[in-house]
Amino acid sequence: MANGHATLHRMVLPDHTCPFGVRAKEMLEAAGYQVDDQILSSRDEVEAFKTEHGVATTPLIFIDGVAIGGADDLERHLATA
Q1: What CATH number corresponds to the domain at position 49?
Q2: Residue 17 within any structural domain of the chain
Q3: Is the pLDDT score of 54 beyond 80?
Q4: Would you say the pTM of this structure is higher than 0.85?
């Protein structure tokens, strides 16, 4: 089990919750990470975040300050950790 800290930036809009963000949070918690769950709650927030970080999609996961990527990247990271 991990003892690190993870920051998860994910989209939770009034009409849509990103399933990849939900999956990422579940994987992080199952791996024992303390999760700082940063919710992007509007389309404007999501678009500004993607532009700021140079990513095409959310979620974006950081573990101990290092960008891991999205949910699929997290899954690969956890499999090799």
Answers
A1: 3.40.30.10
A2: yes
A3: yes
A4: yes
